[in-house]
Amino acid sequence: MNIIIGVLVGLIILVLLVVVHELGHAIVARRNGVVVEEFGIGFPPRAWGKKLKNGILFSLNWLPLGGFVRMQGEHDAADQPGDYGAATFWQKTKILLAGVLINWLVAAVLLTVLAITGLPKILPNQFTVPADTTIVKQPVTIAGLISHYPAEKAGLRVHDTIVRFAGQPVPTDDRLIALTHAYAGKTVEIIYSRGGVEHTTHVTLRQPQKNEGALGVTLDQRQLIKASWSAPIVGVATTGQFTWVTLQGIGGLVSNLATGLVSQLSPNHTTRQEGSKNLAAASNSVAGPIGILGVIFPAAEQAGLTQLVFLTAIISLTLAVMNVLPIPALDGGRWYTMALFRLFKKDLTKEREEKIQATGFLILMALVIVVTFGDVSKLFR
User: Fold this and answer.
1) Is the distance from CB of 250 to CB of 115 less than 8 angstroms?
2) pLDDT at 207
3) Is the pLDDT of residue 17 over 70?
4) Does 247 fall in a domain?
5) Longest dimension (CA), the chain
6) pTM
7) For residue 116, is it within any domain?
């Protein structure tokens, strides 16, 4: 049941983020004289449609994978009044990048709200306004258990929070680690919270060994950034930070992928091994639709609304970044194609544009299939 709810929650979030992206295209297109023929939620085949007063066909479609906007004369070479192709270069630029801007703004607004209620601190140098910022440490939480070790035997579970250990409070994970070493080999009382309800258990600790603790757990203690008047500044600046980190991540992915593929052609066995490591790193750093859906529900169930909103902001930001890259079939790819043909003063005919975008789309779909296969493999592992 949890998996089904996770998929549903994830689909709703992804569809909403894509819909607002497409809404950005539609609004800017109309404001620049381009006729919007259809605004659809999901992808065809069509389930239901209605013509609105402004002449736009609003449709609901059977494939719940996002949404789309269909404009009149979408090819760059179209030249009739109301055609997308008849718009100026600057107007097309605004239309193509409107979705990117909307997704970026959604991320900034969500992070601004979280800056008021509690924004997860995940970057070492995450932006704050010292005069108006407090760092709140959440309770020490069990992030993982080692099989057949004291914590598991005592009935502790992942996501339990430790309230007291051997009668002493545990304000930090370092404090808990120190206490487990101090009481190694002894039986101690642990008070923990699960689902907001406190429980008590007794644990006989092991003697710590190399790379193995006395309790048999991995710990997590998250920090939240809270602000008041500076929340909008923190929200926007943090969105900028995450944008840069995302671009760096994509750069690292491309670098690992390129290095790995080239290394596989080498006759040297060691070089091929290093290349395999780079390809594995590239594979592990990418998540497709299933991977995204796989983390959304656990976030809602285990860390509450804060983590769910935070992940929504990050996904929205990722959509913005991906759509500004020169990938054919995406907004950035269409803009770069249009700009390059204008730069070299060549005609971007309908046939050329369709061939470029179709090739890009096939490559994109192949990548999605490969990544999805990787996601499924990770789920089974």
Assistant:
1) no
2) 84
3) yes
4) no
5) 83
6) 0.82
7) no
